[in-house]
């Protein structure tokens, strides 16, 4: 109930601030649970992605620091979020989403790079897909990457890609993780091209690279 309530509130706020958004490739979405994966470009993408996948409901990972505030913790838990220690992720970072995907009607929103300031693909999504037996569905967001840009009612477009199925016999190692990362990146690039081949993502707050 709370998730549905929050969804309608979020949809109303998004409409008031930014107007309507455009969706491409909705016919590619599986009927059952799936893992929605995309490049992490803004902190509000989970909201847009959850709206894009409606009426499907989603769970998502949130850094443990957000759960320190009791009010925010209550909201996050009732919105199907679960805590993850980004620096030292434990077994629950895999076990919790796998159980949700297998035993509930909750799909999962996940960013394989783990951060808005990194393009390096990590293997968590691959492991979760293998253990849960559900497909990964690529999605990309093109729109404002600064919060102030949302209020200018600039166009937001999201596109879904073809589902990616992971064989349960796949061995998880550096080679398969790199191959998986390349496959996902190729899917993201293809979707970006389909939406707008001239669109280029620029990180508004890039991290400083260590030159040593």
UniProtKB/TrEMBL annotation:
Keyword Acyltransferase in annotation: yes
Residue span(s) of domain Phospholipid/glycerol acyltransferase: 34-144
Keyword RNA-binding found: no
UniProt entry keywords in alphabetical sequence: Acyltransferase, Transferase
Xref: InterPro entries: Plipid/glycerol_acylTrfase (IPR002123)
GO molecular function annotations of the record: acyltransferase activity
Superkingdom to which the source organism belongs: Bacteria
Coiled-coil zones: none
PANTHER family, per the entry: 1-ACYL-SN-GLYCEROL-3-PHOSPHATE ACYLTRANSFERASE
Protein name: Lysophospholipid acyltransferase family protein
Species of origin: Weissella sagaensis
């Amino acid at each position: 109930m709370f998730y549905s309530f929050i969804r309608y509130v979020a949809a109303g706020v998004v409409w008031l601030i930014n107007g309507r958004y455009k969706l491409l490739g909705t016919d590619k979405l599986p009927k059952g649970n799936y893992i929605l994966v995309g490049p992490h470009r803004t902190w509000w993408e989970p909201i847009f992605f959850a709206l894009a996948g409606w009426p499907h409901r989603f769970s998502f990972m949130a850094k443990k620091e957000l759960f320190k505030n009791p009010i925010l913790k209550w909201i996050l838990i009732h919105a199907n979020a679960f805590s993850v220690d980004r620096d030292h992720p434990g077994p629950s970072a895999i076990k919790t989403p796998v159980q949700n995907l297998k035993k509930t009607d909750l799909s999962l929103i996940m960013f394989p790079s783990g951060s808005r300031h990194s393009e390096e693909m990590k293997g968590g999504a691959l492991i979760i897909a293998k253990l849960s037996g559900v497909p990964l569905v690529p999605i990309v967001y093109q729109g404002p990457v600064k919060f102030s840009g949302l209020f200018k009612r600039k166009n937001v477009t999201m596109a879904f890609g073809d589902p990616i199925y992971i064989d349960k016999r796949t061995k998880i190692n550096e080679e398969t993780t790199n191959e998986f990362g390349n496959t996902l990146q190729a899917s993201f690039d293809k979707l970006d091209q389909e939406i707008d081949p001239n669109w280029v993502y620029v990180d508004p707050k890039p991290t400083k690279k260590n030159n040593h």
